[in-house]
Amino acid sequence: MAKPRKTTLALATVLALGFALPAYAQHGGDGYLFHAPSVRLSLRAGYDHANANSDVFDQAVTDLSLNKKDFSGLTLGGEIAFALGSRFDLSIDGGYSRANKGSDFRHFIDNNNLPIEQTTTFERAPIMGNLRFYLTPTGRNVGRLAWIPNKVVPWVGAGGGTMWYRFRQQGDFVDFQTSNVFASSFSSTGWTPAAQGMAGVDVSITPLIALRGEGRYVWAKAPLGHDFSGFNRIDLSGVQGTLGLTFRM
């Protein structure tokens, strides 16, 4: 459990920084900032739809009372971006998603005519570096001492990095050769390269804060551990839709 705890702690730290940012408002005036922002801190939450297009998921759906949608779940994330100019940002981005679902074997029961139950957990935590391009100007200078953000600014971006994942099944299982029921836990975890494309829009609420809506597609695959020997690489790809806040600094 160490990896997801570290990820959650990192996101909680970013969230705490976000709540501290209103104190920064003294650096801006009524409807403007004293300069174009050089740093943007974003926090987001939403839903992560897992593609689940590999044979380990296919077998889980075939043998157990699971559906493909059961591998999808809520996601949290944070990003810090540094301005490279008036229309480009370079950012560091992290997120965490988790799906946890109980199930039983579709075609088997135990000697007491009870379901043979287990729990499947699927976790993903990407860490990415991104380049973002704003499709319209993010704001305008008024004289030398004031910068006014535009109300609506769409953007696109792409990035790459690494993803930590864990796929775990624990509970009771059937030995198909003997039909015996046994208790066990099967797990695979590791890091793998990842890439993503994203698009979104920032809607200014105040000079310091914008509402951000975004969608992103994350691509990654990884080899499974020895507990799942004989299976192909696990599909870690998926589509995210999130809402959040961006703080300008």
Features:
Porin; 249 residues; 60% strand; 14 strands
Task: Please outline the helices and strands.
Elements: H1 2-20, E1 28-29, E2 32-33, E3 39-50, H2 55-63, E4 73-83, E5 88-109, E6 115-134, E7 139-142, E8 146-149, E9 152-174, E10 181-204, E11 209-219, E12 221-222, E13 234-235, E14 238-248
Antiparallel strand pairs: 1-2, 3-4, 3-14, 4-5, 5-6, 6-9, 7-8, 9-10, 10-11, 11-14, 12-13
Description:
- The chain is mainly beta.
- The protein has one domain (2-248): Porin (Beta Barrel).
- Helices cover 11% and strands 60% of the residues.
- It is built from two helices and 14 strands, in the order H-E-E-E-H-E-E-E-E-E-E-E-E-E-E-E.
- The chain has helices at residues 2-20, 55-63; strands spanning 28-29, 32-33, 39-50, 73-83, 88-109, 115-134, 139-142, 146-149, 152-174, 181-204, 209-219, 221-222, 234-235, 238-248.
- Strands 3-4-5-6-9-10-11-14 form an eight-stranded antiparallel barrel. It has a two-stranded antiparallel sheet with strand order 1-2.
Q: Give the number of helices.
A: 2
Helix content: 10-25%
Major sheet: 8 strands, antiparallel, barrel
- Give the H and E element order: HEEEHEEEEEEEEEEE
**Average pLDDT rating:** 90
| Structure summary, number of beta strands | 14
User: What is CATH's topology name?
Assistant: Porin
**Which overall shape is indicated by the principal axes computed on the Cα atoms?**
elongated
Count of the separate structural domains: 1
Shape-level CATH architecture: Beta Barrel
Strand order of the largest sheet: 3-4-5-6-9-10-11-14
The level 1 CATH classification is Mainly Beta
How many whole angstroms does the radius of gyration measure? 22 Å
Given as residue ranges, the uncertain stretches (5+ residues, pLDDT < 50) are: 12-29
